[in-house]
Amino acid sequence: MDEAARRRDQLEEEQLLRVSEAYEGRPPDVARARDLAAAFLTRVQAEQGLPVSERALGVVQLVVSELVTNACKYAPGPSLLDLELAGGSVQITVWDSAPVLPVARAADPGRVGQHGLEIVMAVCQSFEVHREPVGKRTTASVMLADDPGGDVAGHEPLS
User: Fold this and answer.
1) Any long-range contacts for 110-113 (C-beta under 8 Å, 24+ apart)?
2) Residue 109: which residues within 8 A CB-CB, separation 6 or more?
3) From residue 72, how far is each of 52, 69, 99, 124, 128 by CA, in Å?
4) What pLDDT does 129 receive?
5) What pairs with residue 23 in β-bridges?
6) N or C: which end of the chain has fewer CB within 10 A?
7) What is the pLDDT of residue 159?
8) 82: which strand partners?
9) What is the pTM of this model?
10) In the predicted structure, residue 10 carries a pLDDT above the cut 90
11) Which CA distances in Å does 136 have to 33, 92, 99, 140?
12) CA distance linking residue 53 with residue 87, whole number of Å
């Protein structure tokens, strides 16, 4: 196989393992981002043969929805969503233009709304936010398959 063919095969494989989309910061972007996540995971399962549980599909769509919603609400202008397959999990990264780092609020069952970050942190195996030269980058990781006992893989069950 010549070098050009090898590079083309490598690029095709990378495209199967990662997808990105830019958004303008408008409410319809949230639904488009959820649809992108579902299509990506469907393709990962079909073309890579990796198991993607219904729970994982729902959790990834939820996390994408919450992170893109926050970008639309709190950051002026464009945002970027990256979904990347990384060793049995999906890395969900949202870049937006706001430099202010999000802070999870204290639990308050009487509060209506503003629970998105709490939810994301509860359902993901990892969550981090980093300032960028312009804005910030928020990354969360979701496992694709549950373990046989039914607990989320990689996450310690609560006692």
Assistant:
1) none
2) none
3) 28, 5, 14, 21, 19
4) 95
5) 79
6) C
7) 42
8) 20, 93
9) 0.80
10) no
11) 18, 14, 6, 13
12) 15
